[in-house]
Structures are given as structure tokens and as C-alpha cells.
Amino acid sequence: MTGATVTDAGPPEAEATDAVLPRAPEGSGMARASLINLVGSLVYGVTGFLLIVVITRRLGTRGAGALLEAIAVFSIVSRSTMAGTDVGLVRFTSRFLTRDRAAEVRRLYAVALVPVLVLSSLAGMALFVGADPLGRLLTSGHSSDTLSTYLRVLAPFLPVAAVYQAVDGATRGFGSMLPSVVVERIGRSAALPPLVLLAISAGGGAALIGAAWAAPFAVALVPMALWTARLLRRAEQSLRDRVARAPADAAVAPPEPLAPPELARRFWSFALPRSFAGVFALTITWVDSLLLGAMEGTGAVGVYSSAIRWLIVGNVAGNAVTMAFAPQIARVMAADPDDAKPLFQEASALLVLLAWPAYAVAMVFAPILLTTFGDGFSGGAAVIAITGVGFLLASAAGPIDMLLLMAGRSRLSLINTGVALVVNIGANLLLIPPYGIKGAALAWTISLMVANGLPLAQMWKMLGVHPFGARTVRTMALAAGVAAALVAARALLGPTIGGLALGLALGGAVLLAGIWSSPDHLGVDQVLRRPAR
After folding, report:
1. DSSP code for 407
2. What per-residue confidence (pLDDT) applies to 523?
């Protein structure tokens, strides 16, 4: 699926996969990379949810909304100023190492990161200066002052965050997932909930809270940079060793280095177009919150953005499946596209198997789940119900955008994401005024359908590949049975803790029984044992 969002299965994963493949170890090495990604995704999801719980319970709907709006602005601007360098560095680093150009990687990093540093610094200064008018544009009343304070505090961290995220993505070019998982998905993400909680408890106000959220970027940049330098030195030494061991007439001598203008031309001609897709996808994720804040205030943003987090549980499972299957899909597409269909349908079935029950739990028991955030968030139940439909449909399409990219249709992916963004903004402008947070939820659902429906139709027509194989259909039927068990539990005990416990017990029993009784166990054991070739 295109993601919790359209972000999760976007170009970065595609480039990472394409670039890492030649360097990845065979067999257990690839399986270990998938497991590491899964662990990292789970930790990232849990800590992100804990952060939302801290923010909502301690700041209330308006306070949480202001902070989440500031994070939205910060995320969009930092992603924009990265200008696609994360994807570009993955691709070029991997290719340079494969083609004995390890000695040129240092210059590659300079070509990529210096413009990012300049651009993000200018953006940070602009954000700092324009914090007040931007705060008034995005919300009103006392909340606009709070939002402006957040923006001023976050602005100096923009260059750090942009460079950090570029380097984070680039480490995958060395064929290693560990730096990203350890530093970003576990280290930085785990630090945020306690730091923000301490800042709130200390009574430092928006300035201290904003600093607590942004400062881990600066801290995490140090180990990420050191880790990257270590990977680079090892790659350079490996090349020197190969050259030293080779006969004088061997073909392992490094090729002539590219001239700086040519290197810059090649890198930026690739990175810049890719950057648009990433910006589009991230904007879709956050633009509804910004428009909601401008039209309905920060209180609505707090309720809306917090409620959505309960659906992230299913997205974590979906992302894990996408990352685990992406390398295999890429290889099959490169070797024989005719074999892509069964593998894609297996991936789609597993994605549905993991994601649909999680979405169903959130949708059926939304009222009791929202009490996690404290008082004033009950209106988010409708948001979960409406947006949950969009996530169900998106996951039913499987990792379709990844398939599109592996088929070499990256421009088509960019167009699809752009269309989804236009639809998202238009629907938000049309639906938020009359329906508030429900309108924003409906707008996101519509854009999810567009973002996943377009590549689904394209791949079906071009390659005859679609996710609806026999196993996917059986999985959908099983997930429907789980949903029925959840609904029955709610009807019996209501949206209470007892009802939730009964629903989880009944739904879990239905799920396990369905997997066990299926002729092929719905592919679970096959996937777990699948060797990486």
C-alpha cells in the first residue's frame, strides 16, 4: 500500500532496495536485515504513540494541536530542503562502491550535503523571521502565539534535521540497516517521550517543549555521522586492499574519477526529481492538520492528529511487510516480471493478514481507545472510523507503489502522488468547513483511494499484476471474521475495557484458527522460512 500513507512505500524504499541489492549478503543476511527493520519499525511505532500520549494527556487538545502543527511545518520544510539527497546518496553510494569508485564517495557527500546545508539554513532563518505571521495564518487566538513560539524554537534545528535525515538515508547505500535502526528508529525515537515529558513537567512552556522535541536531531547526528564515516573508511580500505592484491593488469583498478561538475550534474539530475515525490507524500500526511488548524483551530488538530495514531499500529505491520518483500520483488522484476504476480499477491495477503485486524480493533473500539489521550478526544472516534476505511482499502492494494517503482515507473509514481496531493488539498478545502475533523478524515480517505487506486490500475493494465489472488481473498474473509468477532464483543459488553478484552480474545481465536485451518496456513510459515536469494 502507499502508506499509512503514501509516504511509507515511496521512492526512498525503492532506491534503497535497488541500491542495496548488489551489496547485500545472501541467505540469512537478507533475512536478518528484514528482521532488523521489523524490530526498528515496531520500536519506532510504539515510541511515536507514547509521544502522542504524553503530548495529549499533558497539553490537552489545543496545546497538542499547536505542537503537532509546528511539527507538521518543520517536517514539510526539512523534507523539502533535503531535495531528494537521501535517495540520491543511497543510489550513488551503492553504485560507486559496486563500481570501485569508493574513493569518490567523500566528494559525493560534499556535492550532496553542502547545498542541503545552505538551503535548510536559509529556510530556517525564513521560518524564524516569519514565525508570527505563519502562526496567525495556521491558527488563531492564543494558540497562534504558542504555535509561533514553537516555530521560532524549531527553526534553528532545520539544517541539523535536514542533514541528519539525508545521512540517515544514505547509510543504506553501504548495505547496512543498523545505523538507521539503532540511531533513528530506536535511539532518537525512544528519547522523545521522556524528554518532552520532562520539558512539560518542568513548566518551561512552548520554548522548552519545542527544544526537547528538536534537540535529539542534533544529538543523533553525531553517532550517525561517526557511523557513516566508519562505513566509508571501511569501503575505502576494502578498495585499496583489492587493488593491492590484484595483478597489475587486472581490471579492478579504480576508474578515472568524475570531474566535480559532472558528478554534481549526475547526482542532482537524479535527486531533484525524486525529491518532489517525497515532498508530495509528506505533504499529504500533514496538510490536513495544517488546513484543519487554519479553519478549525488547534483543538481540532489535537483531536484529529491524535486519533489517527491508533491506526498507525496497522501501518507498522504494513511497513514491515513492505520492507521485507521489497528486495524479493525487485529481484523477481529484474529477472522475470512474469513471476512478480504470485509474489506480489503473497505480500498483499500477508499485509492484509497483519493490518486489517489491527485496523478493525481501532475502528470498533475507538471510544475506549481514545481515553488513552485523556478528556476531550472522544470526537476522534469518527475520524478513526472514516480514515480506517481508507487504510483498509489502501492495504488491500498491497505494496503497489513499491511494485510500480520496481517496474521502473518512478515518474508514474511521482505523477500519482502529485494527483493524490491535489485531490487531498481540494477535498480538505471542500469538506473541512462543513464537516470539521470528519471532513478532513474523509479527504484523507479519498486521497488514499486515489494514491493506491492509480498504481493498482496501472500495474494491472501494464503487467497484469494485481493483489487479489486466492490467498488474499481468503485472508480478507478471515479478517472479516475477526471484525465480526470484535463487533459481537462490543455489542455484548459495549465499548469498554471488558468489551475490548473479550473482542481481542475472540478475534485472536478466530485469526489463529483461520491461519491454522487454511490449506497453506495463508503463507505465514512459507514467508517466515522464505530464503533470500
Report:
1. T
2. 65
